[in-house]
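Saturday, quiet lab. Running sequence design on the C-alpha cells for the scaffold JK sent over.
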C-alpha cells in the first residue's frame, strides 16, 4: 500500500499492489530476496541501498521515490526481537523496527513534482504462526518522537472490541529501552467518526 495526502489540494492519493511469488529467484513481475532487503511488486520496488534503503512506487496519479538512511541502531521488539502476539507463546513474530530514519522523497501528485525531507519508520515482521482464533482486529502505532525516541504500541482485538493481547516498546534517543507487557497498553478512543457514505 502507498499513499500521499496533498493538504493544499485536499486530496488523498492511494494505491496498492498484491502478487503471488513462487519463491524461486528474483526474476519476473513479483519477487522477494531471501538474503537481504529486496522486494518487487510489478513496477514497485524496495531495496537496500548502501547502509539505507530506496523505494520507488509509481502509481497512476501520484508517485513516490524515497531514500531512507538509518540514524539509530535497529530496535528489536519484544524479547530481543521475539514479539508475542497472543496468550500462547507460539503466537509470536520476529519483529525488528528502524525508527528515526532520515527520509528524502521526490514525489509527484497530479503531474506536479515536488521534494520533501523528514523522518520515517520501517518495520520488518515475520512469523510461522497464525493468530489466535479470537483475534479479529489489530490496532498499531509506531511513533517517531520529537526528542529522538521511538514508541510502539499494539493490541489484538476480539469481536466485542476487548483486547486479546497487547504489547509494544519505548526507546529513548540515547538508547534506554523498555518493552510493554500486555497490561501496560490501553487504547481509548478520544472520538468516533461515522462515514457519510456508508453510515
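Result came back. Writing it out in full:
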Amino acid at each position: 500500500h502507498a499513499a500521499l495526502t496533498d493538504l493544499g489540494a485536499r486530496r488523498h492519493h492511494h494505491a496498492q499492489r498484491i502478487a503471488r511469488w513462487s519463491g524461486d529467484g528474483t526474476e519476473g513481475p513479483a519477487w522477494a530476496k531471501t538474503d537481504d532487503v529486496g522486494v518487487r511488486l510489478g513496477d514497485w520496488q524496495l531495496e537496500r541501498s548502501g547502509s539505507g534503503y530506496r523505494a520507488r512506487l509509481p502509481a497512476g496519479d501520484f508517485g513516490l521515490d524515497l531514500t531512507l538512511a538509518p540514524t539509530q541502531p535497529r530496535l528489536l521488539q519484544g524479547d530481543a526481537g521475539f514479539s508475542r502476539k497472543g496468550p500462547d507463546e507460539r503466537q509470536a513474530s520476529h519483529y525488528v523496527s528502524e525508527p528515526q530514519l532520515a527520509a528524502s522523497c521526490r514525489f509527484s501528485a497530479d503531474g506536479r513534482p515536488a521534494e520533501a525531507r523528514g523522518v520515517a519508520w520501517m518495520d520488518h515482521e515475520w512469523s510461522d504462526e497464525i493468530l489466535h482464533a479470537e483475534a479479529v482486529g489489530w490496532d498499531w502505532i509506531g511513533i517517531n518522537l520529537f526528542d529522538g525516541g521511538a514508541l510502539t504500541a499494539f493490541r489484538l482485538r476480539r469481536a466485542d472490541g476487548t483486547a486479546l493481547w497487547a504489547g509494544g516498546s519505548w526507546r529513548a534517543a540515547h538508547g534506554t529501552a523498555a518493552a510493554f507487557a500486555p497490561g501496560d497498553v490501553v487504547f481509548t478512543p478520544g472520538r468516533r467518526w461515522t462515514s457519510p457514505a456508508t453510515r
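Notes for JK: The longest strand covers residues 92-109. The CA atoms of residues 133 and 158 lie 9 Å apart. Ask whether to fix the surface positions before the next round.
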